[in-house]
Structure formats: C-alpha cells, structure tokens
Amino acid sequence: xxxxxxxxxxxxxxxxNHFIVSKTDINGTIAYVNQYFIEISGYTEAELIGQPHNMIxxxxxxxxxxxxxxxHLKAEDEFWGYVKNMTKDGGYYWVLAHVTPSRHxxxxxxxxxxxxxxxPEREKVEKIIPLYQELLEIxxxxxxxxxxAHLNQKLKEKEMSYEEFVFSL
Length: 169
Hints:
By secondary structure, the chain is an alpha+beta fold.
C-alpha cells in the first residue's frame, strides 16, 4: 500500500501559462496525466497511473468539498473549485480545478472524468482558506454532514451555488 507523504510547509507556485490535466475512470483512478502534472506533483507517470486521484489530496482540504465534487459529477454536472493538493515531498500547491464527465463518443455514457487545473489568483486562495479551515474544524469536531449543512447554509445566505461562490471571490 502506498504511503501518504507527511505534509511540509513548502508551497509550489503554478505557472499561469500551464494547465495540469488528468483523466480518470469513473471510480477516480488515474488513467492519464500531462507532463505538467508530473512536474508539479513530483511523481513519475508510472507512480500516478492506476492510482486513485485522491493520492494528491492535502489533509488541509475539507472532505465536504470532495463530496460536493462527486455529487456534481454523479449528477453529470461539471465542478469548479479551489483545491490544495499535496506533492510527493509533502509540499503543496493550490489550483482552480475544473472537472467534467467524459463520455463515450457513441453511447454518450459517462466513462470517466477529465480535470484541468490552473494557477489560482492568490487573493482568491486567501479568501477560501478561512472557509476551508472552518469546514475542517466542523468535520473534526462534528461530522462531514455537519460541515455540509454549514456550507449549504452559507451558500443559501449568499443565494448562490458553490460555483457561483467560487467565481465571486
């Protein structure tokens, strides 16, 4: 079983002229990564292919954000969100992630997911961090469901979806 790296306080900045691209099967197992993904993550292509995409999940990320991502994908919708990922050495990088279902060209059945990630604006990351810390604390002290209810209440008060919130930052 693969050992998760220990997080360290080392941030990697993405090049705003490059995109991180990956494709997974319907279960989130990595089937394709572009060269920039390999470079930023610190993993080799062989270490990434066949692994669950959550192998790069940073422990500072609230689980509720990934629940929302999967809820959107299962509803055949796209997802936009800010994500903190972890590198092989335990460092981290922030992305603005866009995840969409991939369909079979003839049957239109969903066969996997395509994700492109880009460098986020720093000011927007600084705005999302306090919310993510709040959600993490609710998950730790209560439950994932409590964090989801809290996030949904915040969105309801703002009268917007999560994606609208992401783009409003």
